[in-house]
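Students often ask why we bother encoding 3D structure as a string. The short answer is that it lets us treat folding as translation between two languages. Here is a chain of 197 residues written in the first language.
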Amino acid sequence: MKRLFDIVASGCGLIVFSLLFLVLAIWIKLDSKGPVFYRQVRVGKGNKDFCILKFRSMRVGSDKGSLVTIGGRDPRVTKSGYIIRKYKFDELPQLINVFTGDMSLVGPRPEVRRYVDYWTSEQMHVLDVRPGITDPASIKFRNENELMEKAENSESYYINVIMQEKIKLYLEYVQNASFWYDIKLIFQTFKVIVTER
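And here it is in the second language, the structure alphabet:
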């Protein structure tokens, strides 16, 4: 049921948001040099790598340094990128990942291999399910960049504090996952996006 829902919902989403996709693509191209989409290798179900899609919100080559972004003062983020990130529009292309089966609408957010290498054997159970666009950790840490901005060493703070808290929530999701819980999380995500922007 979950996979069928993912296919239908992501397919409908791609149709409904097609005009928005076009507008964002034009804006990104006019705002800075580089491709419309940002592709990054993430770790998915079964500890297998896949390529996640996002609308590009940073300057080309920005991911060669730190992989974490720092609030509103990160100079790597483009002008359009700040708005795209604020309203979570950068995540929309992941509907393609959901449609093709690399991701689900709801599930633990996929990490890059560099950070997964820090996980313990118990934490690796996060990879027992498909990663998702949203989950309890995405809702709790929706202002993650603002937290990072206050940290003295943003990457160390992410690995030792934020990531550890996220993994706890990921594991709780894996243990309690159900179709109706997913529906609840989708509505909670929409509520947060609409009411806090």
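Translate back mentally: The mean pLDDT is 92. Keep this in mind for the problem set.
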